[in-house]
Structures are given as structure tokens and as C-alpha cells.
Amino acid sequence: MEKSELLRITGKRIQQLREQKGLTQVDLAGKIEGEFDTTNVSRIESGRTNPTLYTLYRIAEALEVELKEIF
């Protein structure tokens, strides 16, 4: 699997989880621990950036899911 495909799949999964929770990108950014901009959520969900493992952990925490559910 290519890096770009993995980023796209991961981003779509985050988007799916966020929408299942009834959250907007702004809502999710506000729930993520620490400073986190809405544009970062957008870039991650569209697969345009490579988030760190810690960022993915923070997103999972904000979505109230286990990290493995993102993958």
C-alpha cells in the first residue's frame, strides 16, 4: 500500500467516526487536547498530511474511541 493511499484511508475513517458522533470539524478540533486548528482536521481527513501517532491518539481520545478503531 502506498503512503498516499494509507493517509487517505485513515483520514476517511476519522471523518466517518466524527460524523457518526455528530461532530463538525470545528467541534472535533475543539475537543482535541492542546492547540489544534480546524484546518489540521481538514488536512488529515482529506489525506493531505501525515499526522503523528500522538496526533492520532489525541484524535481518538477526542472521538472517545480506541486508537485501533482509527485503523
Describe the structure.
The protein has about 70 residues and is mostly helical. The protein has one domain: lambda repressor-like DNA-binding domains (434 Repressor (Amino-terminal Domain)), CATH 1.10.260. It is about 60% helix and about 0% strand. It contains 4 helices and no strands. The longest helix has 18 residues.
Gist of the model:
The chain has helices at residues 3-20, 25-31, 38-45, 53-63. With 71 residues, it is mainly alpha-helical.
Total domain modules:
1
Uncertain regions spanning at least 5 consecutive residues:
none
Which whole number gives the mean pLDDT? 96
**Biggest beta-sheet profile:** none
The helix/strand series, from N terminus to C terminus, equals HHHH
In the CATH hierarchy, the architecture is Orthogonal Bundle
Number of strands: 0
Using only C-alpha atoms, the radius of gyration works out to 11 Å
Overall 3D geometry?
globular
What is CATH's topology name? Answer: 434 Repressor (Amino-terminal Domain)
Distance between the termini: 14 Å
Protein name: Transcriptional regulator with XRE-family HTH domain
Keywords: DNA-binding
InterPro entries: Cro/C1-type_HTH, Lambda_DNA-bd_dom_sf, TransReg_Diox_bact_type
Organism: Mesonia maritima
